[in-house]
Design goal:
Strand 4 and strand 5 form a beta hairpin. Strands 1-8-3-6 form a four-stranded antiparallel sheet. The protein is built from four helices and eight strands. The model has no long low-confidence stretch (mean pLDDT 90). By secondary structure, the chain is of the alpha+beta class. Helices cover 38% and strands 25% of the residues.
Length: 157
């Protein structure tokens, strides 16, 4: 896809819409496309987090792995959803795991390179921090809701 079309798509259909065109072009300079077959793991909890993703096509399940038994499905993400915030926060390890439910196409952003861009441009860093803090809040809220639904002891709010 042409860079101008990608900038437009990111500005109109994703949480990256708060960024300006030039900021998005800088981010896209550190992005590549990846295809992920259904059932394939995108990342696993506790491993090094060096990227974030924009899901272009398909669905990806965000999960919390269990010590025993099946993982807890937290959210199913679809086209234009942003995946991953652990690249931004030390110790740069994934908090959840992500697995493709269907064949998927993603934009993969190099988190290390983008962190360097943020050091050089604090306005970009602050804008990304606000975007990804909101993403963290939504993802953690969804995880809490799923945990409460699956646990649900009597009288627990």
């Amino acid at each position: 896809m042409h860079a101008a079309n990608l900038v437009n798509d990111l500005q109109t259909r994703t949480i990256l819409s708060a960024l300006g065109s030039q900021q998005l072009k800088r981010l896209l300079g550190h992005a590549k496309e990846q295809r992920l077959p259904a059932g394939e793991l995108l990342f696993s909890q506790g491993t090094a987090a060096e990227h974030f993703y924009v899901l272009r096509e398909g669905t990806v399940q965000i999960r919390v792995p269990a010590i025993n038994g099946p993982a807890l499905d937290v959210q199913t993400l679809g086209a234009d959803d942003v995946i991953g915030w652990s690249w931004l926060i030390p110790p740069y390890q994934w908090t959840f795991e992500a697995r493709a439910q269907t064949d998927s196409t993603l934009l993969v952003f190099d988190g290390k390179a983008i962190l360097q861009e943020c050091e050089q441009d604090p306005a970009l860093g602050y804008a990304l921090m606000k975007i990804f803090a909101a993403l963290m809040s939504r993802r953690l809220h969804a995880a809490r809701r799923k945990l409460m639904d699956s646990w649900a002891p009597p009288g627990w709010a």
